[in-house]
Design a protein that fits this description.
Layout: E1 2-3, E2 9-10, E3 16-17, H1 20-34, E4 38-46, E5 51-59, E6 88-93, E7 99-105, H2 129-140, H3 145-156, H4 166-176, H5 180-191, E8 200-205, E9 211-217, H6 219-227, E10 231-235, E11 247-253, E12 259-267, H7 272-285, E13 293-296, H8 300-309, E14 314-317, H9 319-330, H10 337-348, H11 352-365, H12 372-377, H13 386-400
Parallel strand pairs: 10-13, 13-14
Antiparallel strand pairs: 1-2, 3-7, 4-5, 5-6, 6-7, 8-9, 9-12, 10-11, 11-12
Helix pairs in contact: 2-4, 7-8, 10-11
Domain FAR1: 26-113
Protein name: Protein FAR1-RELATED SEQUENCE 5
Domain MULE transposase: 232-324
């Protein structure tokens, strides 16, 4: 007996499926309720009639990845997620044309995802044709990806029910939309020695040798970083340009409290590997010098890349952006004057030593111990002097307007 996605106990050996896709969909619904991702595995197919006589589906962590011997290092490092998990589901076709369970194993050798995280696993993030169309229209209208995701989540009753991967879809769309002429023009412009003999640029290629990300910087930007390298803001509030490429900028503040630009990039593929490449390229451009402190937004892929790419840099979340997310996630709490006062005191009117005290008092006074968003994100604000937050929140605010 197993538990279906609605919590009902069912006998796995009595299940009946129309075809292998029907079986895959059922197993995937079971997998999200159990907290793992699946993939298609082995199968025997009747080549003459075009249907499978048997088909297996496994946990995405099944097997062990073989190390490939190659002279040239891979352009794109792939994370090894395999750990030899045994969980699997096999169906077999009967003479009636229906498929029934032939083999079943529910044994996992790894930690399963929690209900609030399971929808982020790969097999649960598929997007249908209608959602493709909605996503493309939102992108054409320059609606921010986070706002589009929030809208979709509201439509389906929460992010835990949002089983689509807008970021992956947009990355593919943007990458495919770049023609050969555009790529050549970009490289020619960057490589023109008459424009700036000290101009620095790098491009990242995908597995198909197509440009996926671009970074550039000139000598004046390098000189500014050499002087004002202590605080750097990686700003993505520029959203996208008319060609659907997200524009990012490395920014700082000089001794006149003016914004200075240290570098810029076009991100076609917003993945962990891409952000890792971007930050490592930035350090290469600055001759190995890393920012003392880096301020970013809460992009999950970016947060995962920073510890590896910039291990010696102190990472913070920009308070202005935290405040915008709070308005979105805490909603009606800001109608309470006492909460709003405590919130502002937490962010702007205390120093590092007082943070824990102010935080605990706010949580106790407003009974917010079970608020998942606060527990997940707000502890990131406890590091760094509050005057630093103020400088960058003001400057970032100007950029986004």
């Amino acid at each position: 007996m197993v538990r279906a996605d609605n919590g009902e106990a069912i006998n796995i050996w009595t299940l009946e499926f129309r075809d292998d896709e029907h079986a895959y969909d059922w197993y995937n619904r079971y997998a999200i309720s159990a907290g793992f991702s699946i993939r298609r595995h082995a199968g025997f197919k009747n080549k003459e009639k075009g249907y499978y006589t048997s088909r297996s589906f496994v946990c995405s962590k099944e097997g062990l990845r073989k190390e490939k011997e190659q002279d040239v290092p891979a352009k794109k490092e792939r994370w090894n997620t395999r750990c030899g998990c045994l969980a699997s589901f096999t169906i077999q076709r009967q003479s009636s044309g229906k498929y029934f369970t032939f083999d079943w194993c529910a044994q996992h050798n790894h930690e399963l995802a929690t209900p609030t995280k399971a929808h982020l696993l790969r097999s649960h993030r598929r997007i249908n044709k209608l959602q493709h169309h909605e996503c493309d229209n939102a992108d054409i209208a320059n609606i921010p990806l986070k706002l589009a995701n929030d809208l979709r989540a509201a439509q389906v009753g929460g992010k835990e029910h949002l089983k689509i991967d807008l970021k992956h879809h947009l990355s593919n769309r943007r990458s495919k939309s770049m023609g050969v002429g555009v790529a050549c023009a970009l490289l020619n412009w960057f490589g023109d020695p008459h424009r700036n003999s000290q101009f620095f640029f790098r491009v990242m290629l995908d597995d198909d040798e197509q440009i996926s990300n671009v970074f550039w910087c000139d000598r004046s930007m390098q000189n500014d970083f050499a002087l004002f390298w202590d605080f750097v803001l990686f700003d993505t509030t520029y959203m996208t340009n008319s060609e659907h490429r997200p524009l990012g900028a490395f920014l700082g503040v000089n001794n006149h409290r003016e914004l200075v630009v240290f570098g810029a990039c076009l991100l076609f593929d917003e993945t962990i590997q891409s952000f890792k490449w971007l930050f490592e390229t930035f350090v290469e451009c600055m001759e190995g010098k890393t920012p003392q402190s880096l301020f970013t937004d809460q992009d999950a892929e970016m947060l995962a890349a920073i510890p590896t790419a910039l291990p010696d840099t102190h990472h913070f979340l920009c308070v202005w952006q935290i405040n915008q997310y709070a308005l979105k996630n805490l909603g009606s709490l800001f109608d309470n004057r006492d909460f709003k006062k405590d919130w502002n005191k937490l962010l702007f009117d205390n120093d590092v030593d007082d943070f824990d005290l102010v935080w605990s008092k706010m949580i106790d006074d407003h009974d917010l111990h079970d608020n998942e968003w606060l527990q997940t994100y707000m502890r990131s604000a406890r590091s760094g002097p509050q005057h630093t937050y103020r400088v960058f929140s003001v400057q970032a605010r100007g950029l986004g307007s």
